[in-house]
Amino acid sequence: MSNAAREFLRSAAEKSADLVHRQIIRRGIDSYEAANERGRSRFLDWDAARLRCQEIKWEAVNNLDRYLLEFEQRVKDRGGHVFWAENSEEARNYVTDLATARGVRKVVKSKSMVSEEIHLGPALEKLGIKVVETDLGEYIVQLRDETPYHIVTPAMHLNRTQIAALFKEKLGDVDTDDPQQLVAAARRALRRDFFSAEMGISGANFLVADAGMIALTTNEGNGRLCTSVPRIHVVLSGIEKVIPRLQDLATLWPVLATAGTGQPITCYSTLAGGPRQPNETDGPEEFHVVLVDNGRSELLANVGEREVLHCIRCGACINACPVFRTVGGHSYGTTYMGPIGSVLTPHLRGLNEFQHLSYASSLCGACTDVCPVKINLHHHLLHNRRDAVSASDRPWSERMGFALWRWAMKDARRFRVAGWLARFGMRVIHRLHLDGTLVDPARPWNRNHAALLAPAKSFRALWGKQNGGNGSSN
Amino acid sequence: MGEHPAFVHFSLGHFCLAAEFLPFVERQPLVLRSFEVWTISGRMAKVALFIPCFVDQLAPEVGMDMVLVLRRLGFEMEFPEKQTCCGQPAFNSGYWNDARPVAERFVQIFRNAEQVVCPSGSCTTMIRNFYPELLAGTPLHEEAIRVGRRVFEFSEFLVKVAKVTEVGASFPHRVAIHDSCHALRELHLKQESRELLRQVRGLELVEMPYSEDCCGFGGTFATKFGAISAAMGDVKAGNAESSGAEFVTATDTSCLLHLDGILRRRGSKLRTIHLAGILAQTGSPAKRRPRPAAPQGAP
Fold first, then answer.
1. Cβ-proximal residues to B137 (8 Å cutoff; 6+ apart), any chain
2. Complex confidence, ipTM
3. Which CATH entry fits the domain spanning A60-297: 3.50.50.100, 3.40.190.10, 3.40.1620.10, 3.40.50.10420?
4. CB distance from A305 to chain B under 8 Å?
5. DSSP state for residue B287 in the 8-state scheme
6. Chain B residues closer than 8 Å to A12 by CB
7. B98 touches chain A (CB under 8 A)
């Protein structure tokens, strides 16, 4: 078992028993689901829209080389810079080198999961550069010195009282739990940062190939301030975010907003495509796009799993996931949590270290049901499990267990005898009141359940008796 | 002169009228119904039973209840004794090479069956939805797809194939439905079990909040990630209790075994019962067979 797996088990068990956490998440998900349902009903045909988005992303991912080069060319034509980063380190170094070379002392960041993925914040801070998260949720978790709890709603795990206490402690000038006043306090603090930062960092919801622009959506307008006020604008994006045409946004934007929060469209939808042009009045002096690979090319080469790159990071699967609701976003210990995280992380960071996430699912399929680009998420979890077994990455005892299982299941007589032995054992254990103790082979089950009661006779025995067949007697 | 529509109408109406007045028909309305259904298709279909391994060993009453209902409806049944398991435990754990021979065996055993009925949405899903992928590239691939089309989950078989919703059951209790994930999302079954339950005499069907949320069983997930699984089960149990039902039912025994273990540990009064268990009840109290109450050794 990897360290990550051990930590996951520990943290998941702890959160599973945390009833306050359970209640906060339930409330958050309830209001999301109500909004999401309203949002979907605004579509004439939500499933047709999903299908269209799936087609767009399929086209983009299967022609990634072409569209990325087209995007790069157009950005360069307008005087922007494009840097291809093969891994986190290269991406991080590009940004830190740029910040050092330009004498940057403060960076404002709009929400970007890729920046979390490459651990950019700590790298900049190590150089003495102040990094300010400007998305309200991100700002809150930054004040708490935490990572985002959820890719769309980073502070979902906190209630109003907790946030009020946090602001009182960290900002000083506010002592209320009125949401409006809390937001106003954050706004006052952030305004100062927007206008004193030399560098703005943003993510990108989409990279539009034919326009050579990044498409960015935020609900607070912070994205727009990050991309236009500071002297330098750096975009961090995974290579899979490219889409062919500007007109594709007509479908993708509303679908992303609906799946993400239930809104018809996000409040601020921004397109940015380069530094300030001679005839323009505002915008950054420098425009850099860092295209991060970090394992995505390998996923692209894997035809069976390539579809995972269709993800538009809306967070719908995370909200739908009963495991996520139980263990919470931090237990995963990864940048991407929930179903998409459990599918993606083993590809990006190694199957050996993160396969446990692909096993930590009841395979209920709720994620696949809600995915707006129709990624077959729970099937990909199964594929990851298959690949973990193929790589001989599973415990010896489990491999032996299934070899034995196969031997027993290939013959009805053997199955019957094995079944009888198991039931007999369970009945003896139960008779001796040893359920759930160390001698109980059904301990993993009986630890969490009232004892499993084994019947004296199997179905085939009862059927044989009733139908006079040559069935067994047990 | 051919048959006048009015004549047909009259004779059918006459037949139904007679059925209502004849006491012996009233005692056996279901024989009449299945007669109607199966004479239209021209013959009685023989049904092969697939009893999943854990139902066979841990919940045989579910299989027997299903047999009882099908027999009451007039179906002839066979139980191919060579059957063991569909292979899902190994498949879901990633052991596709171990699951494959077990799946191939299943296809060979059931390749000649006209219709296969199974009291589990999960195992039906394995055969219908996952065999094509598991057996891709093997000689049995096409055969597996054909067999998959003929395997039906119990409620699906009754409502969609046999087109029966009234099975002559009586169960005067308040019952809530948990929508088992595989039946719901892989087989797209939701209304079937409800339609069947609405016809049960005396039964009050109640909806529990979040009935579509997973109960947390998930096969080996329940033992590998026991704490998560139990917490999910706890949420489900709470929702089921809040519905005010006396029984919670589902189409999958696996969900119910899990929920039963959770409910009994909570000391809940709520009991679990498989859909087949409800449909098998005809009203005589002696025949009621809910799962047993908390055992002596329970903590």
1. none
2. 0.94
3. 3.40.50.10420
4. no
5. G
6. 225, 227-228
7. yes
